[in-house]
Amino acid sequence: MRRAFDPTLYLVTDTALCAPRSVPAVVAAAVAGGVTAVQVRDKTASRRDLLALTRAVQEVLAPTPQVRLVVNDAVDVALLTGADGVHVGQDDLPADEVRGLLGPDALVGVSVGSAADLDAVLALPPGTVDLVGLSPVWATPTKPDAGAALGLAGTRELATRARAAGLTSVAIGGVHAANAAAVAATGVDGVCVVSDVCAAADPAAAARTLRGALAGRVPA
Amino acid sequence: MRRAFDPTLYLVTDTALCAPRSVPAVVAAAVAGGVTAVQVRDKTASRRDLLALTRAVQEVLAPTPQVRLVVNDAVDVALLTGADGVHVGQDDLPADEVRGLLGPDALVGVSVGSAADLDAVLALPPGTVDLVGLSPVWATPTKPDAGAALGLAGTRELATRARAAGLTSVAIGGVHAANAAAVAATGVDGVCVVSDVCAAADPAAAARTLRGALAGRVPA
Lengths: 220, 220
Hints:
The structure is a homodimer.
Chain A: E1 9-12, H1 15-18, H2 23-33, E2 37-40, H3 47-61, E3 68-72, H4 75-81, E4 85-88, H5 95-102, E5 107-112, H6 115-122, E6 131-134, H7 151-164, E7 168-171, H8 180-184, E8 190-193, H9 195-198, H10 203-215
Helix pairs in contact in A: 2-3, 2-10, 3-4
């Protein structure tokens, strides 16, 4: 059975930004502070290390089963760990192939950086993709290969179309406590954060601040 | 049902060395020249590109089903393509995890660079690993992260232990037409080649020359 996914404050991990703390330690603190979903992303790790990292994050998430765990790109790692889903970018395995491997109950997310990317997602059979990650809202050093910034207006446009199609949408790229409410007000279902939590001196406090900012958000 | 795997002349692809020719074009020529098994390896390709590459190689191998296709590292790509197996190095997913995902009929190969690596393989439940890739026989620029060279004596020692344990063994690293017979004489079941075929002006002729060299090999 598919389990509910709360995208309100979706943490995407960055191993280098978490250092010298471990990723699981930062995730544990972030969840204590109010993160609602976690995506393990480490494009430079070997598959063996990514498997170990994913399992370690799973362990710290065990007491909070409502916080879903998604693996970036690595479908094999998701299958081995029984993670809740996979998020793929435009260079990763195609979403329909990912859905085929993971089955109907997994969460499949896709990065969408343009109207054309969203068109491609909407052209897939219903049920292939659950979530679109609208990105980047703003240019960000944590993902230098990202495309042109969508800005708030572009994010709103894509979020509106995603919502009309029944897709969950989150916004990612340069989201911080100071702009989270404005991003949420574009109509996305949640915001993704990387550096604002991973690089924070106190990740729990950073998550708490973000949740506070989102609580005051203007409904779409 | 598991299908026979002929490791006699096992081609491991290198996209950069094949260029400007496509990998499938080089594979087709190499198989015409006598390559008996193919491993698609491209550590720099995105998963999306590796999936497309693997399918393209599968297409050129369709007329020669006795030539098995193995995917390096990418278990998800092997699952999606129905390739015959996966070869993992020491940084890739652990062999027992790979076997769990692929099931009993797939070929699972593991890189072994030392007696300790072979000990680890032999400590796994029987049937976990089918093949060990003894490497590198000699230092080679196509895999700069490889460990210390085994030499012929070290290769013979590991091949003898692998054979006693019922594992297929192949030798890889610096194998060329001029030394293939000496490598085969160590008792391995086959030799792997990369640059000697991928970088050859005429890959079919290169494979034919290698087969000729192997045909004169001294039985172990």
